[in-house]
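User: Before I run my own analysis I want an independent prediction to cross-check against. Here's the chain; please return only the structure tokens and, at the end, one sentence I can use as a sanity check.
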Amino acid sequence: MMCWYGPGTGGWGVGLMAVGVVLFWALIILGLIAVAWYLWTSADRAPQAQPVPEELLAERFARGEIDEQEYRQRLDTLHGRAGPVIRS
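Assistant: Structure tokens:
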């Protein structure tokens, strides 16, 4: 003779337990897929290269922020060539 303490797991208990197990495994699988996707896409992304000072200076010149004289003077300074300093 077996000793039962209470009515045991009824129909709803078995059904909810089955739903819980399915949800548990679905979350585990989706989590693994999300991690794999993140690692896959992050490997494709290369770090952005920082622009060199000459490129920044050329962009400022192209936008019209500095004139040609200031561009050439700053370019000479970047390359270590001493030129005449003209103050206006």
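Sanity check: The chain has a mean pLDDT of 83.
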